[in-house]
Amino acid sequence: YMGTVLIGLLRQSTMVVSTIFPRLFVLLCLSHLLFVYCDQAVEVTIDAEGSTHTVKPVSSEPAKPTDTKPKKKISQFCEDVLFNYDKKVYVLKDALAALNKYPRNPYSLHTKAKVLEKEAEKQRSNALLEQSIDANKAANEVLQEHPASSGPSLELHRTILSDLSRQLDFLGRRSQSVVFASALTELPGSDQQQLDAYNTLGLRYLDTGKNADSESAYLKALSIDPNNAYAQAHIGMAYKFQFKYPEAAKYLQLGVDKEPSAQTPNFYYQLGESYERSGRRDEALRVYGEAVTKGFFFSTLQRSTYNARSKLTGRPWWSIDQTPHKEQVDNLIANWEKIRDEVKPLLDDQMYFKQLFNDENEGLTEKGQWREVNLWIHGRKQKRACATLPFSCGLLEPFSDATQNRMGQVKFSIMHPGTHVWAHCGPTNARLRMHIGLIVPEKTFLRVGDEIRSWKEGEYFIFDDSFEHEVWHNGTSPRMILIVDFWHPELPLTERKTLAM
């Protein structure tokens, strides 16, 4: 009541009171508000300095109970969906329905990709894997629109790029795989994360045959950690495939000494060859001996890396009587001159020669020129070549152990004078190889194991090319032979259906 009276008086002398008693004036006004608006409760706040005053009406209605249950984060929601899928609470349809409620959320999209990939593995379905890739790509696009420099979103982006690179590599889309592996190296991260990213990129480049790019990626990895054994082992591979044999030997040796993933037949094979081609035969034999001890090779001379599960007889040279193919071989030999005469004109026709005959591309030639034309590759008929050489292909077609051999080739081989083919081993012990001499000049030699032989026109020999072999052409004119790979006679039919290059 007194507040109301005082306010009435102050209305008549506002200027005086507000000037002499400013704070009293304010307090009295506030008291007036309390009484005038007595049907409302108010909150009054004064800041720490007492200069700011806030009056906020508070509803007289009873307060609604507060929901103390916190909202579930989208990341936790996605983890729950994945957990329910793994525990078979959700089938695929249920999991996707739940995740599709958040169609533009990267966590939801990535979880969708993981569920689809798991289902693809169960069903052995590339179609489902494609859907997983699409979901990961969508998540990547969202994160590119809103890039993060740290925190969970950045780590999610790192995982998505890594998954995309891996999935595309699995499907054989290696160029696309490189794109995402390269993007991974551009994300900010720790030294370890950058090291891992460059190691991944280097491997993807190796898979695509871009060996110089692979070398560059691994050099960046080694600039972060010069002693990283994974990078050392794999840059050794990149050097080997660029024919930098001393560098390859150095780094491959460091890799097989320290890196668990380099304990494979292929790493020992490439290391031994690098020593061999650097003129260090003794070191090569040491490496091959270690590999035999570890069970990677059958012997220091038989060093194939992709072998049959069944135990097969291994010998460098074979006779026709040790195979079931005497009838097919006799038919080829009876027609060897016709085969030669069909191919020979192509040697003089530069247009056909360049179109059909390709350079040997496995890095086996130390010097000279070695060219080939394939009639069958891993059981697939080469239609263009067979259209050009119909007589030869017609004779060979019934030889199903050769033409349907998914581990071998049927081809004509042309070698020019002055050529030397490095000592090497074929990839598998699941096949045998036959050479038929068509045009054979003097001073041409083949070594298999410890024995050297020469070709003769109209004759053949059979050998196991998983044993070390080497070729010299010291003559003065081209040598031409027909090469026919066929299944090892002891290889079971069941394995012939599952083995493939």
Low-confidence stretches: 1-10, 13-21, 24-70
Q: Please give the largest β-sheet.
A: 8 strands, antiparallel
Query: What oligomeric state best describes the polypeptide chains here?
Result: single chain
**What is the approximate shape?**
globular
Structural category: alpha+beta
In angstroms, what separates the terminal alpha carbons?
102 Å
Strand content: 15-25%
Number of continuous helical runs: 22
Report mean pLDDT, rounded to a whole number: 88
Compute the CA-based radius of gyration. Answer: 38 Å
The number of strands is 15
Q: What level of helicity do the residues show?
A: 40-55%
Description:
- By secondary structure, the chain is an alpha+beta fold.
- The strands form three sheets. Strands 3, 4, 6, 7, 8, 10, 13 and 15 form an eight-stranded antiparallel sheet that branches. A five-stranded antiparallel sheet has the order 5-9-14-11-12. A two-stranded antiparallel sheet has the order 1-2.
- The relative contact order is 0.06.
Précis, in short:
The chain has 501 residues and is an alpha+beta fold. The chain is built from 22 helices and 15 strands.
